[in-house]
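User: Can you predict the 3D structure for this chain?
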Amino acid sequence: MRSSRRHPLLVPVLLCALAVLAARPGDGDDDTHAAAGASAQVARLYQDAAVATQRYEVGRQAADAQRARAQQVEGQLDSERREIARLHADLGRIARAQYRSGGGIPMAARIILADSPEDLMRDQHVFSQVDLAVGNAIGRSHRAEVRLTADEAKAASAWRTLEKRNAELADLKQGIQRKLEEARGQLQGQADASVAAGSCRGAVRLDQPPTHVTGPWVAPVETVELSAGFGSGGSRWANRHTGQDFAVPIGTPVRAAGAGRVVRVSCGGAFGIEIVIEHPGGYYTQYAHLAAVTVDQGDRVTTGQWIAQSGTTGNSTGPHLHFEVRVTPDMGSAVDPLPWLTQRGVPIG
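Assistant: Here is the predicted structure, written as structure tokens:
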């Protein structure tokens, strides 16, 4: 009897426990989906920003070329204006000469005052020539003014179109940059949470862009801007700096410097989120202070493959990638990465 009284209480307890256990993976999935969404958004916006910047630079170069053409056209328009002024001066000169020579005398008076038919014909011919010259001058002046007006309108229209297009490109670029900054903040926030918990979220599989790698080694980031170098001093390091820092914004794609196998993906500690890759020949490369990783431990990677997104996790005062070359997978065995890369056909700096 006592057993039958306890049994009804046991069932709800078991159901509650099962419900809790069932709910936990779902929560983790939500976190994973959120992390993947932030990483993918940053990657997409990063590419959009690169395309927008490229288009903006093309537009800026076109504006410079158009400005040079506009200056050339302005010179031509000045020549046309001077020609019109000259034609107007010719008209004034012809009109004054015609007035002084009696061009205003009516034809009947010319006949009466003429000494002979030959004089009348000669005078008529002269005045006909003068009238023709006046008519031609007026025609040339009118055509020049029409051409000038058309050229000025065409130049102004082309300039307005170019300025409008460049303004639209600038707005597009700024809009993408604003969205990118927001997404970077979200990505870094998730990374900081993972480091604080000491638990990596796992790889976020991003679409790999087409690579144009021609050699076995590349720089770990596409756009190189060096900051702290190997062996430099500083309050952030116990002894000397053991790698080369690349100043890049949060979310910048990080590339595998060479083909190899991922031997470590970890969170926490001075390096924050980090990856270590083993390469043929007994060398290892480390990528630290990351915001997200796109590979898991044990994965094989190729030269130039996206393996992570840069961040500012761990012992970091600002966004950058910390890159090391080691002879073992552990710290304390680093060599200067810049000469090492230079010896392998990747000069930096």
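Residues 1-28 have pLDDT under 50 and may be disordered. The first helix runs from residue 2 to 100.
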